[in-house]
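Read as chain and fold; for instance:
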Amino acid sequence: MSTRIGKSARTMRKQPRQARSRVMVEAVVEAGARVLSDQGWVGFTTNRVADVAGVAIGSLYQYFPDKLSLVEAVRNRHLADCLAVLQRCASSRAPVRQFVDVLVQEMAAAHSTHPGLHRVLLDEAPAKQDYLDPGSAYEIEYLQHYAMAIAACRPDWDPAVIQNAALLISDAVDGVIHNAARRAMLNDPALMRALATMIELYLSREG
């Protein structure tokens, strides 16, 4: 399992302000995700990431002081991708079947870009304490996004029921998809269909 790392050791030196620097930082984060996916935590070095990104190591160090800050950026981008899926689900206000299909398909896709990445993030790479804390600000925000998405397709449910549904469904999606990533089964249509069916049956019940 991943090791806990304190907050102070995991921050970027600065945020990119110009378009050119933002493109460079994005290239570095993308390269970091690729290296983590292909070579694991042991093979993940700033020199290797800079080489894959096609940037000078000095340019990388302008923004990332070490590989811990870089893996945090990779993790943050993944978390942002997951929140974006939930935001799209909430804004679509689709019926239950369509909502569930989009949720499962897009969450699986968010974990499929670099197939080996999420096993490394879950099992090998050090993790900031906030990511492992069920009461963290991110966890609260994550569940709120689930609740808003569920409320959009089940506006007849009471808020307390929606909150419980957010907890249950988020755990179901995370558990199945994270373990599917570990087992290289994210592209298994039967597994994804079974997950969607389970959630659909739950959301189709009377509130």
Notes: The beta strands are 4-5, 127-128. The CA atoms of residues 11 and 99 lie 36 Å apart. Residues 1-9 have pLDDT under 50 and may be disordered. The first helix runs from residue 19 to 39.
